[in-house]
Amino acid sequence: MDWGTELWDQFEVLERHTQWGLDLLDRYVKFVKERTEVEQAYAKQLRSLVKKYLPKRPAKDDPESKFSQQQSFVQILQEVNDFAGQRELVAENLSVRVCLELTKYSQEMKQERKMHFQEGRRAQQQLENGFKQLENSKRKFERDCREAEKAAQTAERLDQDINATKADVEKAKQQAHLRSHMAEESKNEYAAQLQRFNRDQAHFYFSQMPQIFDKLQDMDERRATRLGAGYGLLSEAELEVVPIIAKCLEGMKVAANAVDPKNDSQVLIELHKSGFARPGDVEFEDFSQPMNRAPSDSSLGTPSEGRPELRGPGRIRTKRWPFGKKNKPRPPPLSPLGGPVPSALPNGPPSPRSGRDPLAILSEISKSVKPRLASFRSLRGSRGTVVTEDFSHLPPEQQRKRLQQQLEERSRELQKEVDQREALKKMKDVYEKTPQMGDPASLEPQIAETLSNIERLKLDVQKYEAWLAEAESRVLSNRGDSLSRHARPPDPPASAPPDSSSNSGSQDTKESSEEPPSEESQDTPIYTEFDEDFEEEPTSPIGHCVAIYHFEGSSEGTISMAEGEDLSLMEEDKGDGWTRVRRKEGGEGYVPTSYLRVTLN
């Protein structure tokens, strides 16, 4: 079945149908073009959305990036960004494979269709011209036949008219013969023209136009085939990105399953753990017992033999009495840079043997050791804290982590410099063996610079190791203090003043006022407030330590030590930068905490 046979007389129908096919092709190209614009706009909006919600700070500077929730969210954003890239790829494939190619093909089809229909119209025009010539020859033959018949009738009438002359009769017969001859020529011409037209018409309807229609049919079928392929490209462009989109969706699912609440809780602890010890209990201050001035120094000394225990049950005596014989003056506190902090009292606390009033000394010590309630505001620190090299402005735990990071960075840099030095040495050896390759002296500046960097980094490593050891010991100390306070039951409040009957007897009122209160009736004596911080000296070390640097103990209360010397730890750093140690050869004193590597028992 072809158009040339079945649709030989449907020239206009075929013209409309082929035009409709080309219009459909153009409409599909336009649709794909707009679809491409939609995909591009969609991808652009997705990328803008991802950019809007991505973290602005680098991951190494953003503490929130360590949480699995944040990491999963960033992973989802990256997958969405990849998904947007696949949408852009779809738009690009549709634009190249469909829009450009089909647009070019449509132009070719239009040119081909135009050529075929021009050929068909020329054939029609030729047939119409042949038909007009046939009609003209037919009309001429008809006219000549009528004139010949009329001339024959005129000649016959004159021949029968007796009044007509012979000349008129001969003239009429010649005219009739001429007209008859012309009619015969017109007849032959008409017959020839008719034969020619029939031949042209048969060629037009059975050969020429069917060929044109078949070409149009082939063109239209090729156009339809190409259009169907264009329909397939629309789905193929999607199918090509389906595996990658599936991976993006799978990545989102993996990111969703990667959220670990327990790990996030641990990360929060690691990020913000301060390492401070928990605040101790607030001591009870008994204002019901007035402080009586003693007549002599002996009344302010250690408790009398009749009062061996003035503290209530559960108390542990870990510190020295301020007026004991073994009490040594503590050096002034150290600044973050290692030097002593200026003090209003350059010689430290006065000796109990000075001529000052013991009650005034008691009042000063009581004020200095009065327990204070720690608050969260004091643990947070202030915004105006000066950042120091040893990170002492940070809480102990955070200081330890930052020091550990700095130590690892310095160690990596040191290893890098060592490797570079070895490489330079090898290169220098090669240059010495083969001078053609280079001058060994040209490497000396680089080797010297590398050695300088190595020395500097070694000092930095030692410095950070010392600071790290100090920070770790402080963290362990705070942790131990916190645990010990947590395990100890709270101190019972002071009991009410005793009954008059409990202390009555043969003694008078003055004697009873000078007699120390009994253990049952009074748990907090007059010097309990500062007795917490100045108790008996521990008899055994609480740890050992190693001197990292040499120290000359020139001031009062300090002791000298050599680098690498093993020492016994007698008292931890109280926050002023000094630690009390004992040498193996004998002798105790204070040394800077930052000069030690401390290990607690």
From TrEMBL:
Keywords: Cell membrane, Coiled coil, Cytoplasm, Cytoskeleton, Endocytosis, Lipid-binding, Lysosome, Membrane, SH3 domain. PROSITE patterns: F_BAR, REM_1, SH3. It is found in: Cell membrane; Cytoplasm, Cell cortex; Cytoplasm, Cytoskeleton; Lysosome. One of its GO terms (cellular component) is lysosome. Residues 124-175 form a coiled coil. It comes from the Eukaryota. Pfam families: FCH, HR1_TOCA, SH3_1. One of its GO terms (biological process) is endocytosis. SUPFAM superfamilies: BAR/IMD domain-like, SH3-domain. Residues 529-538 have a biased composition (Acidic residues). Residues 407-432 have a biased composition (Basic and acidic residues). GO terms for molecular function: identical protein binding; lipid binding. This is Thyroid hormone receptor interactor 10.
